[in-house]
Amino acid sequence: MAKTAIIFGSTGLVGSKLLQYLINSEEYDRVKAFVRSPLAILNPKLNQIITDFDKLDTYGSLIKGDDIYLCLGTTMVKAGSKDAFYKIDYTYTMQAAKLAVNNGVNQLCLVSSIGANPSSSVFYSKVKGEIEIDLNRLPFQTIHIVRPSLLLGDRKEQRVGERIAIAIASNFSFLFIGPLKKYKPIAADTVASVMYQLMQTRSTGYHIYESAEIQRLKGNT
């Protein structure tokens, strides 16, 4: 049976990879991408919905389909303030999820982050943890949450700190074993591939996948 996929955050590192999986998938005959500005992608399956995220409620009737993929996210540096970061990573994400479930969307998949914890003293990790907890309060049949470590891939913007961290991790990859395995950098394409595969299992319930588990699942696909 043909399905409709909904995606928020399709211009990000993971989201852009995921969008390609959705468009190329035989499982979906329609893909709704909610974006701030038009994407340079032409495909008859893709429905681009130019969105004012500060007025997301006005698009409520359009957030309708079978599966929703939430890849919205930024960094504290790019956001410029805690309030701006919170609005993108929590408020927009939560609003999209609420509108989706109210329209009968059954499955949700979220890109979170390693270390997500609502009790964390690190604001970034605290917000990631809060959105995970609050999404679980919504009546979706299925929620998959992936918590990747440092993401590998070509970003539109340059992040000096991440480049340094990736270089260090690459030279000392032998250290990422045992309990440290979940901190090993992971390719954005791997995360996107596993998100897609998880949603096709049609399993029910609330599931969290740490970075090492994402790597393992990719190896099984």
Fold blueprint:
Elements: E1 3-8, H1 13-24, E2 28-35, E3 46-50, E4 67-70, H2 76-79, H3 82-102, E5 107-111, H4 123-135, E6 142-147, E7 151-152, H5 160-171, E8 186-187, H6 188-200, E9 205-210, H7 211-219
Parallel strand pairs: 1-2, 1-4, 2-3, 4-5, 5-6, 6-9, 7-8
Helix pairs in contact: 1-6, 3-4, 6-7
How does this model look, in words?
The structure is a single chain. This protein has seven helices and nine strands; from the N terminus they run βαβββααβαββαβαβα. By secondary structure, it is of the alpha/beta class. It has one domain (3-219): NAD(P)-binding Rossmann-like Domain (Rossmann fold), CATH 3.40.50.720. The strands form two sheets. It has a seven-stranded parallel beta sheet, sandwiched between helices. β7 (151-152), α5 (160-171) and β8 form a beta-alpha-beta unit. It is globular and about 45 Å long.
Helix content: 25-40%
Radius of gyration from CA coordinates: 17 Å
Global geometry: globular
Structural class by secondary-structure content: alpha/beta
* Unreliable stretches: 164-168
Q: Round the mean pLDDT to the nearest integer and report it.
A: 89
Key attributes of the depicted protein:
221 residues; alpha/beta; Rossmann fold; two-stranded parallel sheet
Q: What would a concise description of this structure say?
A:
The chain has 221 residues and is an alpha/beta fold.
